[in-house]
């Protein structure tokens, strides 16, 4: 290795002189510090050398070579005034067999990757890399974005929840805070900087209130997945309410036949949907309302979206089918946001995928008691 390459991969203070490694140990580089007076850390008085020991520390890493070690004499000083004995590490942060530069370098390589991959690649114990990450990983929540996604997830289902904000274009995690009320969502949105033009969320009233409070000029887009889910959940509840004698097909077959678009189904599944509709008028009304809503969502301009949405609301707002009228009432309250949803091409797809990743991370860790470490792990594996 050349001397210039060694200085690049082994960043050391100017007081050190790096020597070439030997042929027997090409990964070990002896370093010699300049002669200097070492003051006492308590009284800052003069100290003398008590003892010294030759030790090796991991300080860098090179591709195809592996870990690079430095070898130096670590002095143990004694103060002449207060008689304090201490070890001087030259500001390198010497702990066991590594320097602070090496530990921070491993921590930076953990961003966007799992700890197990980094530990396997650098041949370091998993628990060691995990401890370094929680010690040195830095979190920067001030990120600029134009279109953002907001949703909640369970840190402990039924007990504790948290709010997460993603970049709609890249899927990068922007902000994460505990809680799911209006104040928590407001804090999460305030962690995003820039000219935010669109905010995509579900139909929760707290989401709308926090969005209006933080980004009053931004367009509030509702997630289409949750809208369609209103209909599919109502169809599933109705199917369970019906008598067992009316279930001529498997449960999953019926759910798929009633939830999917007719043109996307096979002939057998279309026949299943047709038989379910003919057997129950309640199911028929929900199914027709779902297909009509899909027709509304296909509008391409604001005027067309306004006309189709108005026709849908006039038809189903006071419908005899209770769940259908309830869905229409929820849409009427958010009519302006619904028109934005129809015209906008944004969706909460990246957020739903991220929520699935969060569930896998919780399951792999058998749950997390410490929310700070759990959020840090999410930033580790969800960062871009």
Automatic annotation (TrEMBL):
Domain of life of the native organism: Bacteria
Transposase IS204/IS1001/IS1096/IS1165 DDE domain span: 148-378
One Pfam family here: DDE_Tnp_ISL3
InterPro entries according to UniProt: Transpos_ISL3, Transposase_DDE
Name listed for the protein in its UniProt record: Transposase IS204/IS1001/IS1096/IS1165 DDE domain-containing protein
